[in-house]
Amino acid sequence: MPILMETPMELDLELNEDDFPYEEEILRNAYSVKHWMRYVDHKKNASKLVINQVYERALKQLPGSYKLWFHYLKLRKKHLKGKCLTDEDFENVNNAFERSLVFMHKMPRIWMEYLSFITTQCKITRIRHTFDRALRALPVTQHNRIWPLYLEFLNKYDIPETGVRVYRRYLKLCPEDTEEFINYLAEVDRLDEAAQQLAKIVDNEHFVSKFGKSNHQLWNELCDMISKNPDKVVSLNVDAIIRSGLRRYTDQLGHLWNSLADYYVRSGLFERARDIYEEAIDTVKTVRDFSQVFDAYAQFEELSLSKLMEEVTTKERATADDDIEIDLRLARFENLMARRLALLNSVLLRQNPHNVQEWHNRVKLFEGKPLEIIKIYTEAVQTVQPKQAVGKLHSLWVEFAKFYEVNEQLDDARTVFEKASQVEYIKVDDLAAVWCEWAEMEIRQENFQNALDLMYRATVIPKNKVSYTDESETVQARLHKSLKLWSMYADLEESFGTFKSCKSVYDRIIDLRICTPQIIINYGMFLEEHKYFEEAFRAYEKGIALFKWPNVFDIWNTYLTKFLARYSGSQLERARDLFEQCLENCPPNHVKNFFLLYAKLEEEHGLARHVMSVYERAVGAVQESDMLDLFNLYIKKAAEIYGIPRTRPIYEKAVEMLPEAKSREMCVKFAEMETKLGEIDRARVIYSHCSQMCDPRITQDFWQRWKDFEIRHGNEDTMREMLRIKRSVQATYNTQINMMSAQITTTVVGTTETTKSAMQALEAKAAETNFKQTLVTATGANIMFVRGEVQGGDKKTEEGAVYNPDEIDIDMDEDDSGGENEDETVELKNVPIEKQSIPSKVFGGLKKNDSESE
Questions:
Q1: How many CA atoms lie within 13 A of 405 on its CB side?
Q2: Across the chain, which distance is largest between two alpha carbons, in Å?
Q3: CA 436 to CA 455: how far, in whole Å?
Q4: Which family does this protein fall into (predicted)?
């Protein structure tokens, strides 16, 4: 049976037999926390009352034990699970916490447990007092454990006044959490104080946002807050704050200006808002900011107009004042939209006021408004600095003067040009353009003498010599060496001046050494028009002395052409001397034209041998690209003058001098010429020589030509000889390629002598096989020969001789004269295989026959 035992607390306890050992230990060690905890653990399955009694007995003996109090309070809170807040057990637990704090008031964990427990009980004043007691009881170093619970309590209940006051106390300890306070103020609609706090952190350069916001983002938040809530934010000077932001953040001017205007719009100060928009449009410097402000301005005017119209329509009867107000707002809106391009142009000019093209664009925007155009031009020429101008500054002055000219205000136009001529431009050409435009204006007004006087003024040579390229001097001091100005002066003198004055201008240009080949040519043609031919030739000679090749090409070409047209053949020696002077230093790329003129002169007025001499010199002087054309012309003239046989030396020289590709073409022409003359052996020798530079894999056309030639004029032996040469040439090219491959292989891989020998054996075997296959194919193709006329007599084959198609006769055969001169015989079998130009031993037989035929 359970035994009732009276405790020191005068409580009746139910003790079982299992409890006696623990009770005895408690009696012996009443102040041991460990024994009490063992006892509590033993009674963990007992009823709530029993466990609480054990804890109460323990705490009476050990009231300063944190461990006992912590577990006891935690157990008591656990027992409340599922109960209503109005249950008296909640108050009992609160009393337990209060009793614990008598001894545990320095323990933050006990305070935290108590605060988190009491916060759920909706007793606002008691909770606030408890938080305040905790903060007073604990040292300041442990307040950071209490404040999060305190702030959580403020956010949980709608107690704005208490929350604001508590947050103010909290910021004294943690000013870095000001943003949380601002968010709280915004939530409780205390925007005025929120704006004040936000303004403080924006002005604080050392403030670091816990949310990673930059100072610029905080500025934008402040502007949005104060601009959208003008009726709630009353303690700040909104205009001054936003304008300070405009000075600090120049990359976000559009947004800040819109915020300021929005503040006045929401405040009902519409006229003031319009002033802000106009000020913004007149000050922003980027197209992006302008677009933001202009769009907001247009939207404001549109909404203002639509709202007024809605109000008028809702009235039963509209008054005259309402109609006037509607017309006024509509006119404002239309005027704003019409000014958009001009306002945008002003933005671009504020970006760079020295942009000449933008000033021209601005003038176009005000077309039809002369007073505005004059103001724009006046402002432009006063604003744009020559050294900073982007574009041609002189064009502003010229267009300004043309504007007065179009409006028939010539005196004003001359005044503008006069001022323009005094501007210190960067380049001399700009000042020269001003003078030229001034003169052209006078020409358009038919004041020709005034134009000549202007050119004379502009080209006056100063007393002190100044270099044209000396940028330290003003452009006015260097103007007298402007070729543009002198060229126009010369044109004006030719058109409206006298012969003497025009000649004087050209002579001054030459004396200043600023002329060009075109100026010299123009001078010569001017003198020629006035029948001063020798003066013209002297002008050409002056130009020739001033310039070098290739600039002098046009002068020489014009000079020689004019001279030949003038004197024809009457001064042949003088013409020859001119040609010799011209050709002395003439580069190869320009010499062809002069040699053709020289040859034409000799052909028409000189001797035939002189013509041939000129062509002989020409083919050696011109560049390779022109050499073939000149050789063809040389051969044509030689055939016309001396006959076709005299062209053979020219053909031989062409074959030697021309590049390989063109030399093959010349060889074919040479062979065709010999064939037409009936010299079949000569043609065959030429084909044989040309074959040494014709790879059969590339130049198949040549080999086909030779094959057709042998079919028409040769016999079986000559065909076999042609095939033999073809195989030899092909083997030569293959050997060259193989040798290159072997050298590369030896260099890279380093093969041994044994490997080389094996490779050579394989190559020799392959070459032999290819040779036999080619020979069999060529001889077994059943080619039908058309026997031509034998030049040196018939060759007879001994009867009964065994014919071997693979046999190649390499012995020297006697020529048609019975072998009297073996060195001069024409035999294909002895033609050397090596690639070379036409040697004398190849054409030796031809030369003898040439002399005989002649």
A1: 20
A2: 167
A3: 8
A4: Belongs to the crooked-neck family.
The residues, any chain, with a CB within 8 Å of residue 530's CB and separated by 6 or more, are 499
CA distances from 137 to 125, 162, 196, 583, 601 (A): 18, 21, 33, 116, 127
Residue 177's φ and ψ, nearest 5 degrees, are -95, 25
Tell me how far apart the alpha carbons of residues 744 and 756 are, in angstroms, rounded to a whole number.
Answer: 13
CA nearest neighbour of 686 among 722, 730, 637: 722
* Predicted TM-score (pTM) above 0.70: no
- Taking the C-alpha atoms of residue 548 and residue 326, their distance in angstroms, rounded to an integer, is 80
Task: Report the C-alpha gap between 85 and 97 in whole angstroms.
Answer: 16
Strand partners, 3: 15
- Return the structure tokens found at 53: 């009694």
Tell me if 714 sits within 8 A of 675, measured CB to CB: no
Torsion of CA 813, 816, 820, 823, to 10 degrees: -60
φ/ψ of residue 210, rounded to 5: -70, -20
C-alpha–C-alpha distance, residues 798 and 190, integer Å: 135
Structure tokens at 768: 């032999």
Distance, CA of 477 to CA of 460 (rounded, Å): 10
Under a CB-based contact definition with an 8 Å cutoff, are residues 836 and 816 in contact? no
Q: Residue 234 class from Cβ within 10 Å (0-12 exposed, 13-18 middle, 19+ buried)?
A: exposed
- The per-residue pLDDT for range 626-668, each reduced to its tens digit, is 778 888 888 888 888 888 878 888 888 888 888 877 888 888 8
Sign of CA dihedral 292, 293, 294, 299: positive
Backbone angles phi, psi at 15, to 5 degrees: -110, 130
